[in-house]
Amino acid sequence: MSGSVATVAELLSDPSGHTGQTVLTHGYVDTVLSDNAVVITDSSQQLLILGVAGAIPKGLTVDEFVEVAGRVELFDAQQAASELDISLDGLDVARFAGESSLVVGAIRAGAVPVGEIVADAASFEGRTIAVGGEISSVIDARAFVMAPAGAEPAASGMLVATPFAAVPAQMATQARVQVVGRVVQLDSATIANLGEPFAFLAGPEFDQYKGKPVFVSDVVAVLASAPTATSQEILSQPDTWEGKTVTVIDTVVARLTDRAVSIGADGGLMVVGGLDQLPATVVPGVTIVVNGAVVRFDPSSPPDIAGFDPAHPAVAAFAGKPIIVVTSVQVLPGS
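Predicted structure:
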């Protein structure tokens, strides 16, 4: 994504100064008006985003962070509908007449995986973005290292610094988080420019990050608290975990039946539950947070789940192994 960087406020306060230019802006989805029209906000002002068929991704949700690249135009409903060959009939767009709007060239919704930032930090500098990953180590209440799930921080992590004690008690190693902010190169000049809230970065504990890209953020959202067990731990020590309630974060490997999925390395751990706990959105490839009890699977005495078929070949293969009978399942955003 490319273009001169501008905030929603800047685009709206100086329409003539941006009209006709390709810009890169960001905000949160306020309203999805149609497949061709979306309103984003910076929490105080609203900007209309327009696109030809297929330009705006389907499935955008209210409050989702988006980064948008496109051409700034003063909004005229009739002209926009004609040029883009879209219908704006019946949509609440009259209030944007004469204001800056953005004819979208590209939209990136949700968080950028932290691994992408680490691999090519320079391409993200100067942009306000959302980044998602796993906390690999906590330095103090204002800073932690975020890395791809299961990765070693030294190899693929990035320091995230906040201007206040943004790390709540539930944040710990392996918690999944999303942060909003920007990439900067950490040096003395940067620390001075960031001001007093980030002066702590001059401390010796951050010397190893000097000269490297780091992420400064004032929004930290916990998507899932740290797990209490891993799939591998449960499979390798079934007697230790049997009868215990656990929280596990892992990727779905296979949908075994409508009431059972497998997770973990090679799909070695079965997770079973009702349709409410395992809806159709729980599909191979998504990352889920599983809360439930570990039991030893006995097909002759199966969990009491309506519609669960313990004799199904894909399910019966787990006989004698530990499984999780879920109480809740959460699909992590962006997975």
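Summary: The radius of gyration is 24 Å.
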